[in-house]
């Protein structure tokens, strides 16, 4: 029921009571609350009505709506508006699901530099290290190798900053070399540093829109942080446009990286466990994206009914047993607090 309508009805009811009962005490109880010439709040309505009911027994006899009935009525407001959608659109896939990811040893398997975009994750040079930092990964392309050997600027900058160059390789094909600084050699790498680096990675993927990418780690990174970095890149590169207009040019792509088909990753400290972390990153990022879609959905779309339908749909996709509890079951479980929040 419309809250404003309840307030107005209560206001008119109280005004009529003032005229109907000349008892000074009762009049004072009512007029004290309404002399301010404003609509009463829900709490004020409740308190004033309670006082009138307790102090005026004739009210129950002569009125069609007792205070008890009024109290019961407020508890019967439906949880879901009849006009609210019962289906909540959710995407269960991300563009990175179809990207072929290969993890290689940078000391044994050199990058061919045939990809459109080559990302270097490098250390930031300090005053002490200035001029001493070099690319240690195996470089098979002579032109690229010469460029890297004679350019110290690629290490200059704070963590999270990036610099890009277009360089011709041995096949006279121009490729993009982008260098992302990841902190000093002596600085410890943690989740905070990863969160600082990821936006630059995602921005480059968004701007270049490559179909094939090589990512060369000139930094040491443990398995869990490697998984966290990939998970963050996968998630941050996916754009939720379910409730945006589809006829605008800027909304054609649902992801910053939907063009990508291949991703090669070269690690200094490679072992087979890093391959497992890639699959974990896919799973975690999909779970985060799924939850984010529920959180960001408009309230009228994400209601108890549509949310239950999403739960059923997800359970069926994963072959899980499920049971949706209705109003009666929730009341039997004494979950009144849960029911009170409704949406």
UniProtKB/TrEMBL annotation:
Cleaved signal peptide residues: 1-20
UniProt entry tagged with the keyword Electron transport: no
Domain Cytosol aminopeptidase, first and last residues per copy: 290-343
GO cellular component: cytoplasm
Annotated keywords: Aminopeptidase, Hydrolase, Protease, Signal
Gene Ontology biological process terms, A to Z: proteolysis
GO molecular function term, any single one: metalloaminopeptidase activity
Top-rank taxon: Eukaryota
SUPFAM superfamilies: Macro domain-like (SSF52949), Zn-dependent exopeptidases (SSF53187)
Family assignment from sequence similarity: Belongs to the peptidase M17 family.
Cross-referenced PANTHER family: CYTOSOL AMINOPEPTIDASE, LEUCINE AMINOPEPTIDASE-RELATED
Name this polypeptide is given: Cytosol aminopeptidase family, catalytic domain containing protein, putative
Organism in which the protein naturally occurs: Plasmodium chabaudi chabaudi
């Amino acid at each position: 029921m419309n809250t404003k309508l309840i307030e107005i009805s209560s206001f008119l009811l109280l005004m009529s009571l003032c005229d109907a009962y000349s008892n000074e005490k009762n009049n004072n109880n009512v007029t004290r609350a309404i002399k301010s010439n404003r609509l009463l709040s829900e709490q004020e309505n409740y308190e004033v009505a309670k006082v009138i009911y307790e102090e005026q027994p004739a009210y129950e006899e002569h009125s069609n709506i007792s205070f008890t009935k009024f109290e019961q009525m407020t508890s019967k407001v439906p949880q879901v508006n009849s006009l609210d959608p019962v289906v909540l659109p959710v995407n269960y896939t991300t563009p990175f699901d179809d990207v072929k990811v290969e993890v290689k040893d940078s000391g044994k398997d050199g990058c061919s530099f045939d990809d459109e975009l080559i990302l270097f994750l490098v250390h930031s040079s300090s005053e002490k290290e200035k001029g001493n930092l070099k690319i240690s990964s195996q470089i098979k392309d002579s032109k690229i190798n010469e460029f890297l050997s004679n350019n110290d600027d690629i290490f200059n900058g704070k963590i999270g900053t990036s610099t890009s160059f277009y360089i011709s390789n041995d096949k006279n094909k121009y490729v993009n070399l982008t260098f992302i600084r990841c902190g000093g050699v002596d600085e410890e790498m943690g989740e905070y540093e990863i969160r600082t680096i990821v936006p630059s990675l995602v921005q480059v993927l968004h701007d270049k829109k490559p179909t094939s990418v090589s990512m060369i780690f000139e930094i040491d990174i443990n398995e869990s942080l490697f998984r966290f970095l990939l998970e963050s890149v996968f998630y941050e590169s996916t754009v939720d446009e379910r409730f945006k207009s589809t006829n605008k040019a800027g909304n054609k792509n649902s992801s910053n990286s939907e063009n990508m088909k291949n991703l090669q990753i070269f690690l200094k400290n490679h072992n087979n466990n890093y391959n497992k972390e890639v699959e974990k990153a896919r799973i975690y990022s999909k779970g985060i994206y799924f939850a984010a879609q529920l959180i960001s959905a408009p309230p009228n779309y994400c209601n108890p009914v549509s949310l239950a339908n999403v739960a059923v749909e997800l359970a069926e996709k994963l072959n899980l047993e499920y049971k949706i509890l209705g109003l009666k079951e929730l009341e039997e479980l004494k979950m009144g607090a849960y029911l009170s929040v409704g949406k």
